[in-house]
Design goal:
Number of strands: 18
CATH architecture of the largest domain: Alpha-Beta Complex
CATH class of the largest domain: Alpha Beta
CATH topology of the largest domain: Spore Coat Polysaccharide Biosynthesis Protein SpsA, Chain A
Number of domains: 2
Oligomer: single chain
Helix content: 25-40%
Number of helices: 15
Strand content: 15-25%
Length: about 475
Amino acid sequence: MIDIVMPVPIDVPGNELISGLEKSRLVNKIFLLSRTELESQSYFDALVIDSFQSSDTMNLIARNISAEYILLLTQQVEIELQPQTLGRFLRTAMDTGAGILYSDYFLKGHGEIVDRQVIDYQPGSIRDNFEFGPLMFIEAASFKAAVQKQEELHYSGLYDLRLRISESKRIIRIPEKLYTAGELDTRKTGEKQFDYVDPKNRSVQIEMERAATEHLKRTGAYLKPEFETIKFTADEFENTASVIIPVKNRAATIEDAVKSALQQKTNFPFNIIIVDNHSSDGTTEKIRSLKDERIIHIIPKRNDLGIGGCWNLAVNHPECGLFSIQLDSDDLYKDDSTLQKIVDKFYQEKCAMVIGSYIMTDFDLTEIPPGLIDHKEWTEENGRNNALRINGLGAPRAFYTPILRKIGLPNVSYGEDYFIGLAISRNYKIGRIYEPLYLCRRWEGNSDAALDIKKENEFNHYKDFIRTSEILARQKMNAQND
């Protein structure tokens, strides 16, 4: 009932996984994918491919499989199945009618085996780096139907296939550890998260964007490049801009951040609103030592505020400016012209939000890879659609305060910026500045530098929820417009 499709392992013959699968009464055929010529044997068929991720490879698999289901190994890693693995996948597929199944697993690396829990799939799980683990159990009929509709894709064949299957079938996670896998990517989370803006991956990202955009069109969530007009009303604002700095326990960096804001040279009045979220490491004293009438130092009465809640407190302050401009307490503006460039962009493009570009540095402000993060994948025509595929929109972020007050930010400390960017982009134009305006420090104090799997899953699940909510809202808006 099951065809096995996997990258050719290094140790053929003699591979324990292949030997075990060959003996299983549930297995119909085993197919090994190879980039070089490989002679088929009695216990496997060899398929020569160009790339594991291409649509040609998906088509080749579809032409050769004959079983009802496919167990697809998506990575060339060591896999050890449990005695019940195939049966558990098969029974769940038959019981639920799912198009794709995946499961938790054990991860083997550095001489130890640890639990690797993945997260449930949602309608908003359309990012191309969603982790299924190295095993996907796929209904063959759904696989073949999706392949028939694919255009030529070099890098996103499997991604596009998954999106197409999700449009008509459920994708279900089995919350059981059904196998053990070797570790392929040993980088920390802080090192992985910028892969999608690496220039060398540009052609891959363009193709991924196309696949995601077509999925949004098919599901009624695509937005045309049509925006509501912004008319800036400045009568009630004494200041043109406010620099917003939420902070908690950043004694090592807060002074640098504030000074980089104070040194800004502008042709308009601005202030700095610091929301000091009950710091206990000397941050409060450092802020108080900075004597400048433009600084507004707020210590919330509440003890339950995340970063989003601190932002809400700042932007609803009576002295908040017409534009609210982000500055994280770890970071600095690149030079004294940042605020002027951001405010000029608002007036030039009549947009509700402006996003700049930043340079990654270490604690001592020495540039580190990947260097400049400019998010040039954004386009005015398709940026707000592609934003649903990627995990961030860039920095520094700036907002037209009346709209920010109207929407509000969720009271969380991760993803609040992504939420507000998606929400604003649903109706309004976002302006982009591709020259560096900002220095983003990466150091051991960063909240996302090296997340454990539990926290990484929590963050990813929340961002997928944000995408799900936004996709549903856009589908509803399109339906009402139609």
